[in-house]
Design a protein that fits this description.
Helices cover about 35% and strands about 15% of the residues. By secondary structure, the chain is of the alpha/beta class. The longest helix has 18 residues. The structure holds 5-azanyl-4-oxidanylidene-pentanoic acid and zinc ion (ZN) (2 copies). This is Delta-aminolevulinic acid dehydratase.
């Protein structure tokens, strides 16, 4: 016999009534459901025209040659794919210090943009803009001639030389048919340079500028570097990507890129950085906030599911719903093809 009595619940304490039924549980999303239109699918384009190469560390993803692209994309468009983001993977092209193959007329992403804009006129074509896949040193910009006195192994990039070069590459992609250019280098001043280059050449109101505004120096990019062959030859990217603990710096970068003319602001990676996603949505509520669920996050979720730790689909939904809850309205994810199926199925996990 207990020696105390339990007080009746206050009316405001009774929450279960609102989500006891699967249909009612769906109503509790504050009006924000995942939709097919939110997803942007990252695709790797090889300079081997017949490539269809498995990427061991990125299960289910391949490097695609230009001749295989239409056959790969057509069924996805049929299922409701609205948007892709292209990454060039030059395996054979000669790389140099300024990343010349980035805007060579024969570079794989330029060929892919020309092809896809012809074959799938409704598909929104975004293109990553960076030099790291194209430079011989594997860094994202043009190196500074001044050595870094603190650590010889850690490069410094020359922002003044890099920004115009990156703008030149972005313009070449716009000319090839990109609806959206997305600079991922984190170089100071590149958003402004790109916006001006687009405006001066008649693309100011025809091309969306999506900034990788808060890109952190993360351990989660490994499989991507394997897929894209873009690991730096020496040093790391800490001089230009944000330190993981740098919330203030991320907020400054978001505000800066909005002020410099970005149309969409991206945060990347996602799961360890949901506070930054929320910051992005509240600091710049008039800009769409995009998130990139990067290669390591994808590979981790797949690996955990294969180990039987959780259900793959449930985990993919849970993470992506977290991004939307935090404020994202665009999701770059390697799960995009699966979501095109999953979003047609009845939800049984709610
Ligand atoms: N610019 C793209 C990356 O740096 C990496 C993305 C990923 O890991 O999926
Ligand atoms: Zn890069
Ligand atoms: Zn440094």
């Amino acid at each position: 016999m207990s020696s105390f009595t339990v007080a009746p619940l206050e009316i405001s304490s009774v929450l279960h009534g609102g989500y006891h039924h699967p249909v009612a549980r769906r109503y509790q999303n504050n009006g924000r459901n995942l939709t097919k239109g939110m997803f942007m699918y990252p695709i790797f384009i090889s300079d081997d025209p017949d490539a269809e190469e498995i990427v061991a560390t990125l299960p289910g993803q391949k490097r695609w040659g230009i001749n295989k692209l239409e056959g790969f994309i057509a069924p996805l468009v049929q299922k409701g794919l609205k948007s892709v983001i292209l990454f060039g993977v030059p395996m054979k092209m000669e790389k140099d210090a300024r990343g010349s193959p980035a805007d060579d007329p024969q570079t794989p992403v330029i060929l892919a943009l020309q092809l896809l804009s012809k074959k799938f006129p409704q598909l929104f074509l975004a293109c990553d803009v960076c030099l790291c896949e194209y430079t011989d040193h594997g860094h994202c910009g043009i190196m500074s001639e001044l050595p870094n006195p603190l650590h010889s192994n850690m490069p410094t990039l020359d922002a003044e030389k890099s920004a115009p070069r990156i703008a030149e590459v972005a313009l070449a992609y716009a000319r090839a048919g990109a609806h959206c250019v997305a600079p991922s280098d984190m170089m100071d001043g590149r958003i402004r340079s790109i916006k001006l280059a687009l405006m001066e050449n008649g693309y100011g109101n025809r091309v969306t500028l999506m900034s990788y505004a808060a890109k952190f120096a993360s351990g989660l990019y490994g499989p991507f570097r394997d897929a894209a062959g873009s690991a730096p030859m020496y040093g790391n990217r800490k001089c230009y990507q944000l330190p993981p603990n740098a919330r203030g710096l991320a907020r400054r970068a978001i505000k800066r890129d909005a002020a410099e003319g970005a149309d969409i602001l991206m945060v990347k990676p996602t799961l360890p950085y949901l506070d930054i996603v929320s910051d992005c949505a509240t600091l710049e509520p008039d800009h769409p906030c995009a998130v990139y669920q990067v290669s390591g996050e994808y590979a981790m979720i797949v690996a955990g599911a294969e180990k039987g730790i959780y259900d793959l689909k449930q985990m993919a939904f849970e993470t992506c719903e977290g991004f939307v809850r935090a404020g994202a309205s665009i999701i770059l994810s390697y799960f995009t093809p699966q979501f095109l199926d999953w979003l047609d199925e009845e939800r049984t996990d709610l």
